[in-house]
């Protein structure tokens, strides 16, 4: 297949990389097709990417990214976005969309027809722009979905066309300077003012920031880009009753000339560790008046007299935004697979090219490829394997959420509280574990590049800094385990009470795997105060081969979650005898983290295993042949062994393993690494990241690393300011005094 | 004691911080005095810091650090340095130095008398400048010591006065683009050219970069600041013999106008993850000619005919640079304590001020202090404890190296190979472990600040980015364990062979603690293929109290190292039966890391324990009273329990602990955290970091966090470019098209 991204073939390939590619036991392209969902999709993606790479406007070039001040980067990001919209319009992208969001009411779809951002191709193009976060894309990702979910039909008919035509560019303004995830504590107020008390005809809202800690802070595009904000505020109705948190559409800037409207102060929040293209903003509202109907009124409304009325109650009211929240988490999980794979691609290609340390076993005077060191393998290969595991799990979770959403839209009764709780636990556990793992993994890839990993031109610095937010947004990774355990503890109760009907339902969920081991554990109630002992253990006669048996490894992970979960339940019980419920809960937080992590690990391994089995069963209709399934199965085994080694104390604690197993486990680990080593570069190539997207001097496809580093160095403005014999401002202003003047 | 850094008292203190400080069970100031080495030192340090903070030139201000492009930051750093030299000259600093380096030959000292950088007060001032890396300071830290160590007396007499007077500003140019720590592979050549073959009178050197991978790359100040470089190159003598790596003093730039000299190309290497004040540079030498006597000739020389002669041989030749290398590592270890303490100070003060989540146990409608969550305590308190542990160990290692150096200078025979090997293992193990721990810890502190930890104004982003290099320079942390284990394996041999005389000597070294447990293990030779079982174990009847017994915990750590070390020895032996020595070594790398980490942990805990015991014995003459020793002892216990929990699988593997001990361990951990919680803010205050140095909106002494964040946001140039109604370039150039023009 021709690759339109590289019209001329690459001139030379680094000989080490060429040798790696010449001896692959599988076809990377087959995996590429699988990941894209078929060969034609690969072709289409590459063609779309080539539009960006070869766009004659030159605005997408990344050559000077690393030298720009963030003001320039923000300005450039906006220019990229506008150019992207131009390209899409010219190509007719979005003119014939099927809405990607099945939750969208049919009535709303007509209002966003022709919306280019609703097209999946738009996301391919956004990715092709080297994963530069482009501010206005949040308009579609956060703002429009909020209107679709929370506004009534009339409101949608009014606002959505403005959104589609970019007359309205919106942001989602929830977080405040003093308040993060605890939304009950938000302080911004929306106070109803009746017409009879001086309000506009029909009444109006006064949006106000009563304290410094109530200033909105962090929302993306709030600072400079957005002209509207969906503001989350406490509703004070006509009777001065506080009705809690609701959403209000607040105009920020003139749609004519973008100047701030009276009473509104916004600004960018300043430099961040990453994501500096984005104008995350702050906003202060000084008694800003907005019409009564700017309150989102699908689930509650306030009439002209200021009377508050809930329209839907309970679960039905909460479900849509609940599902949206889980979908955002699922996207974060799924996108981790790409970020981690990019980091692995850079570090593994570089480790194949970089040589260091002489081989004393022979005299050929060549240094070792760094990738041949066991430590480098232990650092990189499990990350590579995990990037594939997260891919499979991410797809599985997205599919499952889509199914649940479709069922809900269709009014099916199968989507019970248990089902929703389960997917909540799954997405929370996976979000917490997978994003922490990915963030640490990207940074490990950077460190594994040694000195040159410190260079911004490695591509790893920005990749890491941009990714890091995933650990904190949409539920801090250290807080989420509590939500996981709240759900899983209900299952423990059902097992303890032997509620057969309930367990039948649980059996169909992600946590179903816990029922059997929990039942066994509950039968043999363990001694209070000692850790729960697993009812499954590796035999004392186990050999090296037992540790290459993936299904046995999976059983071990299954029992591990069950034991750690039961420990939490028992610890909570016994703590409550001595302290208040809150204190008892607090004292269990660390155990909860362990149990939640165990749940996530099992789901990742199970989905990876099931995904491969599914492809195997498809036979020739799968993009993956036997060789590809074989190498991905090695990845699965490696990952299971790696996590067992990394979390070894859990397995020893539950006596699923004993000391004598440790050398076998580690020997198996070395063995699988040896097997996987020749496939490492191929498994990176299979992701088919263009050099344009990787933006890395170290991770180039051709391996021509050193000229790329020097080129990046020479382009630094610090060198350019001093063409004249290499003397710059620093000498003129300061050094001369020291050297010539004699301070 | 008055604090000249804050001439007027702070107006208000955040009430939460005030409450923390009102109920401290110890005196932070007593600990400050201890850390400074006495009250008068504290006073002197504060006075020096106040010079910087209150300098009327304003050049030291950090207000706009975060908004500057790196070209500006580099220029500003040079201006800071020159201003600093001015201040020191005015104050007479350095005019009456005792050299801080006892290794400096007496004859050399006269050449650097009056050198301000030789004064310890200079370092206090450098630190006061908010830990901004100032390029020219490398001149003294890397370049001048190299002249002192490797040049002969005549060369020193010639060059040192030029160094002192800043006529010569030098850098140390070793690393090449393609070659890092394996210096045998360096490619730059220094080829001798006799006068008779066209060289200058007396012969000369041709310094040349034969390949792209041979370009010097990374040396600090090589790019723009230095006018001389100490270049490490392969010496090719008059007979065309390659004599290996030697040092050559190469002029780079004119001392008149700083222009590059013929044949030399240098430049800055471009943006890095941190340290962007510094012009790390690259250099290409195109047959640059330098005089014969520009080769450093203390240990080897080449005469006018190009004849090469080694002057000192073997150990005696290598020792001085060996000691220097270890001293640099020791400084890196010691300085980690400050970097980690700064991060803890920011995160802990912020966690005391930040409130999140309602207390359901009572109805007072106040949110929790984040520091009251167990997870936050588990993330931050052990780091705080470790910062003190690293302080004690850092001091101990520096003192020991100073002693060894003095003995060597005095010609003592007590400094045997064993002694030098031991301190090499100590510094390598500690450098690898303590810097990885600190780097991860700083990043954990950043993450523990939640969303606001992403803001550069948190101070944690730059602190982390600047620190990170410590993991890679002076021996990559993943490579160093091999060096540790090489040394420790010799001890294992001596124990195995029962060499009593040798063991007597080993008993006096840092690794002496291993002899007894190793002897026991060797007596009861364990079964091959199973992990070594500890000869010390917690009793099966152990209670919670056993885990609060620090001396028992230390014994456990002692035995852990011994077992893991013996495992490496046995694994190496058995691997060698099946594979080549190099392959066997490679397969053991992961076990070596574990054993090296265990060695480092034990040393850190032991030095902390010994340090506190030493102060206790001093009684009233110590700055630390009973209360301070009590709180630091809690830190020691916490750290031991934390590392036991973090590395739990090691202790279970060696059967020093069994499953039933785990709940006891974790309960003890919670208990110590509860005890230490009220002291947390005080232990940060005790470090006495000025707000000027912390540069953090979140870590301010007064806790007035939120106005500081808004202030930092408002100052971003992105906001300043758009005073006019808040509209900026991004709108003019792009957004207008989207909103008004309708792309």
Give a quick precis of the structure.
Chain A is of the alpha+beta class.
What does this structure look like?
Two copies of one chain form a homodimer. The first copy, chain A, has 743 residues and is α+β, with helices and mostly antiparallel strands. The first copy, chain A, has helices at 15-22, 28-36, 39-53, 70-91, 106-112, 120-128, 137-150, 153-164, 314-353, 374-409, 417-448, 460-467, 480-497, 500-507, 515-523, 550-578, 581-587, 589-618, 626-646, 648-653, 662-676, 680-685, 691-694, 705-714, 717-720, 729-741; strands at 170-173, 189-193, 204-208, 216-217, 228-236, 242-251, 264-268, 281-285, 288-291, 300-302, 308-310, 355-358, 367-369. Chain A has three domains: 15-20 and 35-150, Acyl-CoA dehydrogenase/oxidase, N-terminal domain (Butyryl-Coa Dehydrogenase, subunit A, domain 1, Orthogonal Bundle); 166-314, Beta Barrel (Butyryl-CoA Dehydrogenase, subunit A, domain 2), CATH 2.40.110; 319-685, Butyryl-CoA Dehydrogenase, subunit A, domain 3 (Up-down Bundle), CATH 1.20.140. Chain A is built from 26 helices and 13 strands. In chain A, strands 1, 2, 3, 5, 6 and 9 form a six-stranded mixed β-sheet that branches. A three-stranded antiparallel β-sheet of chain A has the order 4-8-7, with no helix packed on it. Chain A has a two-stranded antiparallel sheet with strand order 10-11. In chain A, a hairpin with an 8-residue loop joins strand 12 (355-358) and strand 13 (367-369). Chain A starts with 14 loop residues before the first helix and ends with a helix. In chain A, 55% of the residues are buried. Mean pLDDT of chain A is 92; it is low at 98-103.
């Amino acid at each position: 297949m021709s690759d339109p991204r590289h019209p001329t073939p690459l001139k030379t390939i680094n000989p080490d990389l060429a040798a790696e590619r010449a001896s692959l036991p599988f076809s990377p392209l087959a995996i590429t097709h699988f990941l894209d969902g078929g060969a034609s999709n690969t072709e289409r993606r590459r063609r779309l990417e080539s539009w960006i790479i070869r766009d004659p406007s030159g605005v997408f070039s990344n050559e000077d990214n690393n030298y720009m001040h963030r003001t320039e980067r923000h300005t450039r990001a906006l220019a990229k976005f506008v150019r992207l919209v131009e390209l899409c319009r010219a190509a007719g992208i979005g003119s014939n969309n099927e809405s990607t969001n099945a939750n969208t009411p049919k009535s709303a779809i007509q209002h966003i027809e022709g919306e280019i951002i609703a097209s999946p191709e738009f996301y391919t193009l956004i990715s092709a722009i080297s994963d530069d976060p482009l501010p206005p894309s949040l308009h579609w990702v956060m703002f429009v979905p909020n209107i679709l979910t929370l506004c009534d039909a009339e409101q949608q008919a009014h606002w959505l066309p403005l959104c589609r035509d970019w007359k309205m560019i919106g942001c989602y303004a929830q977080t405040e300077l003093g308040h993060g995830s605890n939304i009950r504590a938000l302080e911004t107020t929306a106070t109803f003012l009746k017409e009879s008390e001086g309000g506009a005809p029909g009444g109006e809202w006064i949006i106000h920031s009563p304290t410094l800690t109530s200033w909105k802070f962090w929302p993306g595009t709030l600072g400079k880009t957005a002209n509207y904000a969906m503001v989350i505020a406490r509703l004070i109705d006509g009777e001065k009753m506080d009705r809690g948190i609701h959403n209000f559409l607040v105009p920020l800037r003139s749609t004519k000339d973008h100047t701030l409207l009276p009473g509104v102060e916004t600004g960018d929040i300043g430099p961040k560790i990453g994501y500096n293209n984005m104008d995350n903003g702050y906003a202060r509202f000084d008694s800003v008046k907005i019409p009564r109907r700017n309150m989102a009124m699908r689930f509650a409304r306030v009439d002209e007299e200021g009377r508050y009325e809930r329209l839907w109650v309970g679960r039905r009211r909460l479900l849509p935004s609940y599902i949206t929240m889980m979908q955002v988490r699922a996207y974060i999980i799924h996108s981790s697979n790409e970020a981690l794979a990019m980091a692995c691609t850079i570090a593994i290609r570089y480790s194949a090219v970089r040589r260091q340390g002489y081989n004393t076993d022979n005299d050929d005077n060549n240094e070792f490829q760094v990738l041949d060191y066991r430590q480098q393998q232990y650092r990189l290969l499990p990350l590579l394997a995990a990037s594939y595991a997260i891919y499979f799990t991410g797809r599985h979770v997205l599919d499952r959420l889509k199914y649940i959403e479709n069922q809900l839209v269709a009014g099916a009764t199968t989507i019970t509280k248990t089902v929703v709780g389960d997917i909540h636990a799954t997405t929370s556990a996976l979000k917490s574990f997978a994003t922490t793992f990915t963030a640490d993994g990207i940074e490990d890839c950077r460190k594994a590049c040694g000195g040159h990993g410190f260079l911004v031109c490695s591509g790893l610095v920005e990749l890491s800094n941009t990714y890091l937010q995933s650990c904190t947004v949409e539920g801090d990774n250290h807080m989420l385990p509590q939500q996981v355990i709240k759900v899983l503890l209900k299952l423990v109760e059902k097992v303890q009470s032997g509620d057969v009907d309930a367990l039948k339902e649980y059996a169909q969920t992600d946590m179903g795997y816990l029922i059997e081991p929990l039942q066994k554990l509950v039968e043999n109630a363990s001694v209070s105060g000692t850790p729960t002992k697993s009812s499954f253990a590796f035999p004392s006669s186990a050999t090296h081969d037992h540790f290459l048996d993936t299904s046995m490894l999976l059983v071990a992970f299954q029992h591990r979650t069950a034991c750690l979960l039961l420990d939490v339940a028992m610890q909570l019980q016994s703590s409550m005898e001595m302290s208040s419920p809150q204190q008892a809960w607090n004292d269990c937080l660390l155990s909860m983290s362990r149990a939640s992590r165990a749940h996530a690990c099992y789901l990742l391994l199970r989905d990876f295993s099931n995904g491969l089995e599914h492809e195997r069963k498809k036979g020739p209709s799968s993009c993956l042949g036997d060789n590809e399934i074989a190498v991905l199965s090695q990845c699965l085994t490696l990952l299971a062994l790696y996590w067992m080694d990394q979390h070894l104390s859990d397995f020893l604690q539950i006596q699923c393993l004993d000391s004598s197993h440790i050398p076998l486990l580690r020997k198996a680990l070395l063995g699988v690494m040896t097997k996987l080593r020749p496939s490492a570069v191929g498994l990176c190539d299979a992701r088919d990241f263009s050099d344009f997207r990787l933006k890395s001097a170290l991770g180039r496809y051709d391996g021509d690393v050193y000229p790329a580093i020097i080129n990046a160095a020479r382009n630094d403005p610090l060198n350019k300011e001093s063409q004249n014999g290499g003397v710059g401002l620093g000498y003129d202003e300061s050094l001369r005094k020291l050297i010539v003047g004699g301070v």
